[in-house]
Amino acid sequence: MLKRFMRRLNQKKKLSHIGLFLSFLFISCLTFGQQNAMINGDFPDPTVLYAEGKYYSIGTSSEWGPHFPIYTSEDLLSWKQTGFVFSSPPEWAQSAFWAPEYLYHNGIYYVYYSAKRKKDGVSCIGVATSRYPDRDFVDHGIVVDYGTESIDAFVVREGNELYMTWKAYGLDDRPIELIGSRLSADGFRLEGEPFSLLLDTAAVGIEGQSFLKKDGYYYMFYSAGNCCGVECDYHVQAVRSRALKGPYERIGTEVLLGENTDWKCMGHGTFVEGKDEKMYYLFHGYNKVGATYTGREGLLAELRWSPSGEPSFMFIPASSLNKEHNIQLDLSGDSKINPYWQWDFRYAKPEFSYIAQGLRLGGRIPSDNPTGIALTWRPNSVVYELGAVVNLINSSDAAQKGVVIYGDKDRSIGVGIIGNKIQFWSVKDGKKSQIKQEELPKALTTLELKLELSADLQCRAFYKRSSTWVEIVPEDRGLTRIGGISPWDRSPRPGIHFQGTEDESAVFHRVYLNNKP
């Protein structure tokens, strides 16, 4: 995906209630401000499954650990996170945790996923299994190792047999191809020779395939175009064939899903039958307001058919059932709190625990990480305030502790305390610099500080003196804009921050994230 992105960049330099809600939803979506998604925040490439009376969905986590967030819903409209597939990377995998895909087979829940292999950095497809759809997954290693890249798994049933399909040649100087192969009965290995399903003859990029059977046809829905970033043009197309192995012919319009009033670059989803016996497609798209700063969010559409078998989608806007994902956490002494923190697992090894005074954060920071450790959440608005109360008595004096907006280790901005000084700082191109520093009164026991991000991507830093907020005003406001902080495939994230040695730590009494429309 990255190579295609760069090439294109260079070239351009409760389900039954759904029926009752739809009229209201389509009217209410024509409002001002940033619209909510079905699954708010960065949640690309969602897979979806109905099991045990609920819907389950897993999304791409990329370079954030823990890996592959799991959400559940009663109705496809309102979702809640329940955990992750992996708390730590599988032994064989290095990075780029993309495109999970559910399969329920012989009483077992499978999650196929893509990741880069440690020994050579080649993307392969692995698999993990569990007796449950939302926990206790055990990894079984690599299933697909094909050429220079194997990503975007989807399993098709044909009679009593299983077939694995995937995207290949995304990094080669040749057309991308969607490939298939028979899968072993236990789902752990390929059998027989791979075969071609669809060739990207237009050289636009194709991926994220999913299949449905209808009226004697195999329908393959896939995403075409550039998936990610400001140059994205992702959209959904479909082909069909009487046989799984093809040949396939185009069916439906050129763009089945792509862009509407509030969303753009839609694609890479999977289907689930609703409780109302209708078919729904859960996929991702960029909000036109939040764009790369809120990432590719989880969206929903109903699949419809013409009498001649042509597919179309009816987009379903999120309703008021989806509240803003604001976070207000008192961290002192409550070990049952689970805000589902994520961090850049490649460049930080955080250690955190709950003590009577709050959350204690420390850990190991590699020498090539100028930012430090960030425990983050996914924002669902480009405009928000992020704050924390730091317990200074129980924190290491020489460590930096505060809040941060983290793109990656080389791109971040934050405000923090060292000794009796408060620092507004940034990391750009791998170099950390101080924007502004102010001296604090001595003998403080706690300090509340916050960052505010506005729609023009201007970041402002504050600390509280008595009951009054004091802004740390830089001499150059240009230093505090976060334009360009987004990595190519994921959104930057707000969170709490620590930078110090392994024997140092910071204690946070309270933390909050207020998303604003």
From TrEMBL:
Family annotation (Pfam families)? Glyco_hydro_43 (PF04616)
The alphabetized UniProt keywords are: Glycosidase, Hydrolase, Signal
* Annotated CDD domains: GH43_ABN-like
Q: Which domain of life is it from?
A: Bacteria
Does this UniProt record's set of keywords contain Signal? Answer: yes
Report the transmembrane regions from the record. Answer: none
Q: Which residues form the signal peptide?
A: 1-37
Q: Which family does it belong to?
A: Belongs to the glycosyl hydrolase 43 family.
Give the protein name, as stated in the record.
Beta-xylosidase
